[in-house]
TrEMBL record:
This is Zinc-binding dehydrogenase. It comes from Nocardia amamiensis. Pfam families: ADH_N (PF08240), ADH_zinc_N (PF00107). Keywords: NADP, Oxidoreductase. It comes from the Bacteria. The keyword NADP applies. Residues 10-325 form the Enoyl reductase (ER) domain. InterPro entries: ADH-like_C (IPR013149), ADH-like_N (IPR013154), ER (IPR020843), GroES-like_sf (IPR011032), NAD(P)-bd_dom_sf (IPR036291). The keyword Transport does not apply.
Length: 327
């Protein structure tokens, strides 16, 4: 099969499209012919060998990728034959690899059947990015009276949060970098769409919302953008912080939470895995939202051989929606 292999840390060009031996499923495992593989911003960090963050560099050589959707074409021992030919989607595990490939192996216990009518690309978006969005929403407990500000609102998680908040009946403002992304947010139905590359963007949010204060901030950007969003929260507001794509976490003090009666949740690690029913439950919820047509992930696809371009798009902030590789 063909797969993306990486032998050295460095630039996207380290991602080489190579012929490698087919993987073989072990006991209680299935072989999947991959139709869509998920790509993450964190994959670019792992590729670069950056050791400053919370993720450790992987052992090389390796095939990146931890989410795949496809068709079961082979079975290991102790697997029910009824899996053969089924359309499945699976998260291979946080520390796993092997997704950027034509074939992947996964434990059958981790598989989900793709809902009827749903495509491989949407399914792979929901099993990782969708499950994270479900975890964030669990902590936010949105109500129709909420006024929600979503940062990186044209990104993978951001796009789903905008949709979910609108569905919850909330008033939604989305912020992102650049006019092309702002236009996408506008089209998704947010009442306000703002470009946070402009210095006066908090003013634009206030102007769009009139006398309604922001009650919930969803922030996966951190740094100055996250902080400006935090400053827009009215008294009693909630902030859910789940990442720092800008390179620095959102910073605030407990004194600020007291003075402004704010609630802050860091929706990462144990605060996501500890949600009742765990990650599997969040994956099921995300796929159920897709099946019901309540959440439809925006997806940007690249050919598997062009994985380097997918990484470049994420690093240069030109990607929108969930980035997916198609063999
Ligand atoms: N997807 C998951 O399963 C998951 C799990 C845990 C945590 N997270 C975190 O949640 C956040 C959103 O994740 P996502 O997967 O949905 O990613 P994403 O939003 O599709 O991509 C990250 C976005 O961050 C913004 N950004 C701002 N500064 C950036 C920079 N210096 N370099 C790159 N991007 C920058 C970009 O949007 P603009 O150009 O509009 O600013 C970019 O589109 C990230 O911080 C991620 O680490 C994700």
């Amino acid at each position: 099969m063909y797969a993306i292999r990486q032998s050295e840390f460095g630039a996207p060009e380290q991602l080489a499209y190579e012929l490698v031996p087919d993987p073989a499923p072990g006991p209680r495992q299935a072989l999947i012919e991959v139709r869509a593989a998920g790509v993450h911003l964190v994959d670019t960090v792992l590729r670069s060998g950056d050791t400053r963050g919370s993720v450790s560099p992987p052992r090389l050589p390796m095939t990146p990728g931890r989410e795949v959707a496809g068709v079961v074409t082979g079975l290991g021992d102790e697997v029910d034959e009824r899996w053969l030919g089924r359309r499945v989607v699976v998260h291979l595990g946080a520390g796993a690899g092997g997704g950027y490939a034509e074939l992947a192996v996964a434990d059958t216990a981790a598989l989900h059947e793709i809902p009827e009518g749903a495509g491989y690309e949407a399914a792979v978006a929901m099993v990782g990015t969708g499950r994270m969005a479900m975890g964030i929403l669990h902590h936010a407990r949105l109500v129709p009276a909420d006024v929600v500000l979503v940062n990186a609102a044209a990104g993978g998680i951001g796009n789903l949060l905008v949709q979910a908040a609108i569905r919850a009946g909330a008033t939604v403002a989305g912020a992102a970098g650049g006019e092309r992304k702002v236009e996408r947010i506008r089209r998704s139905g947010a009442v306000a769409a703002v470009d946070y590359i402009a210095a006066d963007w908090p003013h634009a949010v206030r102007a769009a919302l009139g006398d309604r204060a922001v009650s919930v901030v969803f922030d996966g950007v951190g740094g100055a953008v996250g902080r400006a969003a935090f400053d827009l929260l009215g008294a009693g507001g909630r902030v859910v912080s789940f990442g720092w794509s800008a390179g620095e976490p959102l910073r605030f003090t407990s004194a600020e939470l007291f003075e402004r009666q704010l609630t802050a949740v860091v929706a990462l690690g144990a605060s996501i895995t500890g949600i009742p029913d765990g990650l599997r439950g969040l994956e099921e919820r995300a796929l159920a939202e897709l099946a019901a047509g309540r959440l439809l992930p925006a997806v940007q696809t690249f050919s598997l051989w062009d994985a380097a371009a997918a990484h470049t798009a994420l690093e240069q902030r030109t990607a929108t929606g969930k980035v997916v590789l198609v063999p």
